[in-house]
Amino acid sequence: MSRLQTYVLAAGVLLILLGLLIQDRTAVEVGAAAGRGNRPAKEGVGPPLGRGGPAPDRAKGGGRLSSFPSAAPSSGSSRDTTARPAVDPVQPTVEVLARHAGDGSPAAGATIGLWRRATGEGVTYRPARRIADDQVADLEGRATFVARPDWPLEIVARAAGNGPMLRVPVEALAAGSHREVQVRVERPPAPLRIVVQSDDGIPLVGASVRTLAEVQPPRGAFPGRSSLVRRTDGNGFADLDGADRERPWIVVEAAGFGPLVLSEETLALRARSLRGAGSRQQVEVTLSSAAGLDVEVTDRDSAPVQDVQVRIEFDLDGLPLESVASTGRRGRVRIGDLPAGVGITFAARDPGSSEPSFQEVYVLEPGERRAIAVQLDR
Question: Which of 91, 143, 254, 340 would disulfide-bridge 135, Cβ 3.0–4.6 Å?
């Protein structure tokens, strides 16, 4: 046998041996895998998640755990490791029972709201906040709200027909609690027709009828400032609904006439019900021709004094009113549209003084224009 043949024979033997080794190793690995698959599971061992929870539900949420509880543990487990979803605390509820203040009847149709009450001051101040949408009370006057635990509450209610607003504070409620609150709402005032005429009995067309909620500071307008509510029609009529009457004063004005004020007390005495008009009431008012003051301010040498502050004050049916003006270059100022028959306090103050230099009370006649000469000691 030549050397070449020897080498070829040796290489063939090595290849045969290598093939046998590879075949044997593959058989061993297959057998081991088969043995592991047939091995029984140990009792009491749950899924390999560390706490025995369910396997991730990949189809429903990526890597989130399934919301279904895992199977009950076997007898070999000493701990219930079932995953439980978080439960929100039970919210408190408030049931509002609205009654009419007059007769105690159910205030069906009343508008009721629930708010978080404003609290604190300065840096700790927290404004009021609506908790839920307003509700309309049922036939029994009831409305139910879901509140927030430990929040200071406030019930806001008004009777059907836009009656006066009522605010009732309610103490904070604990989680899961229920409270019933009874409120008494006022019915809206009856609609009112105001008939405006002059002192000679002629209906005044275009007169303004407005309501005033509070005393207004002087701003150059007279008397006070408020939004226009109505103007009288061709018959001198101005109709106000119940909501317009919520404010305590009604002011009636017309060009060339002195203002007139009606308080709630005066309306209660003078208003009368109209026949065939449901609950509508009517009150007749008469405006007198406006009075006025012509003021001239001079010094000891009879020279005009400019920028002298002139203030007038008077009261109309419990409403204090005032107006402020200043003299011009000629030391004069005219004040018109003043009411007749009431005491008007007139005061003039020198620009260099903190106290009035002249003060007097006048009662004017309808249409009167009174001249006032003021001489300052300067």
Answer: 143
